[in-house]
Write a structure and sequence with these properties.
This protein has 294 residues and is α+β, with helices and mostly antiparallel strands. The chain is 26% helix and 19% strand. The strands form three sheets. It has a five-stranded antiparallel β-sheet. A four-stranded antiparallel β-sheet has the order 2-3-4-9, with helices on both faces. Strand 3 and strand 4 form a beta hairpin. Helix 1 crosses helix 7 (214-234), helix 4 crosses helix 7 (214-234) and helix 6 (191-200) crosses helix 7. The two termini are 29 Å apart. The chain binds a DNA duplex (13 and 13 nucleotides) through residues 1-3, 6, 31, 52, 67-73, 90-94, 115-116, 118, 131-135, 181, 183, 190-193, 237, 261, 281-283. It holds the Pfam family Fapy_DNA_glyco. Residues 2-89 form the Formamidopyrimidine-DNA glycosylase catalytic domain. It comes from Arthrobacter gallicola. Keywords: DNA damage, DNA repair, DNA-binding, Glycosidase, Hydrolase, Lyase, Metal-binding, Multifunctional enzyme, Zinc, Zinc-finger.
Length: 294
DNA sequence: TCTGTATGTCAAA
DNA sequence: TTGACCTACAGAC
């Protein structure tokens, strides 16, 4: 599920299984052959996420910048150091994806690449395959700084400044439903968190950013921080509170995970009004017209 | 075999 | 505001 929480999980995963290791880098598909050659044989220093951007830092002072876009996904495999991290990114089928660890025999090297593998990273202990990214390029530290400078604060970074979010949101007259998706305002939120957080804070998606007062804006920020931190921990987006679910079972069923996202025509979990859907800037926007009146 | 769909972004009109 | 693009898969034909 490539909103910001998935990218942070990836950064954590790359750091834990590949940092300090020399990597073979290749492009089985061929589309990233030149970039792979610049990184092949280098040691991974570490990985970091800012919003939906993933940066892999190599010890020749180059970064691999990856943006998964809609379809991008990583698959992992390897020995026991890779257990528990099999696959992060877009779902293979509708719904959330958490692939079970098969716990099978010892690692014997990566399998033949299946499908369009843009990049394959291989260490002595395991491998990672990247498919379908929107962006996959080698950049310099200066280029990385330029990219970071454009992005808004990332709610998943402990040092992120809420006041920066307040400034960026309250300065604009666009609807808050658009602004939450704008990576220059807030880095990491996508269509699911946008809809869900606006519902949780009872904010109308059409309120202008500058029409929200400081408290409301900070509450939005705090809610994004909380719900995205949960997303990192769970590996999926769950925004409903237990008291708003019909089914108390765990793990939370997909049908109970959201308040409004993809629930058009179904009754609002709070007030029973039918959840509505419309297009906003070519993306589906889901909301409850009755609850979201602030 | 073809179509539709998806948690995203960019450039062109 | 629209179309193009990245990929895989379910479901319809």
């Amino acid at each position: 599920m490539p909103e910001g929480h998935s990218i942070h999980r990836l950064a954590r995963q790359f750091t834990s299984v590949f940092a300090g290791q020399r990597l073979s880098v290749s492009s089985p598909q061929g589309r990233f052959a030149a970039g792979a050659a610049q990184l092949d044989g280098q040691t991974l220093v570490g990985a970091a996420a800012h919003g939906k951007q993933l940066f892999l830092e190599f010890d020749n002072e180059l970064f691999l910048r990856i943006h998964l876009g809609l379809y991008g996904a990583f698959d992992f495999g390897g020995d026991e150091t890779f257990r528990g991290a099999s696959s992060i990114g877009a779902p293979r089928r509708v719904g959330e994806r958490e692939i079970a660890d098969d716990g099978e025999a010892a690692y014997a090297g990566p399998p033949p690449p299946k499908g369009a593998v843009r990049v394959r990273l291989v260490s002595n202990h395991g491998w990672a395959d990247l498919r379908g990214p929107t962006a996959c390029e080698v950049i310099t530290p200066g280029e990385q700084r330029a990219i970071l400078a454009k992005l808004g604060p990332d709610p998943l970074q402990p040092e992120a400044d809420p006041e920066e979010f307040v400034r960026r949101l309250n300065a604009r007259s666009s609807p808050v439903g658009l602004l939450l998706m704008n990576q220059e305002v807030l880095a990491g939120v996508g269509n699911v968190y946008r809809a869900e957080v606006l519902f949780r804070r009872q904010v109308s998606p059409w309120r202008a950013g500058k029409a929200l007062d400081r408290d409301q804006t900070l509450q939005l920020w705090n809610d994004v921080v909380s719900v995205m931190a949960d997303g990192v921990a769970a590996g999926r987006i769950i925004t409903t509170l237990p008291e708003h679910r019909n089914d108390a079972s765990t793990p939370v069923p997909t049908a109970e995970a959201h308040y409004v996202y993809k629930r058009q025509g179904l009754p609002c979990r709070i007030c029973g009004t039918e959840i509505a859907v419309t297009d906003m800037a070519a993306r589906k926007l889901y909301w409850c017209a009755s609850c979201q009146d602030r």
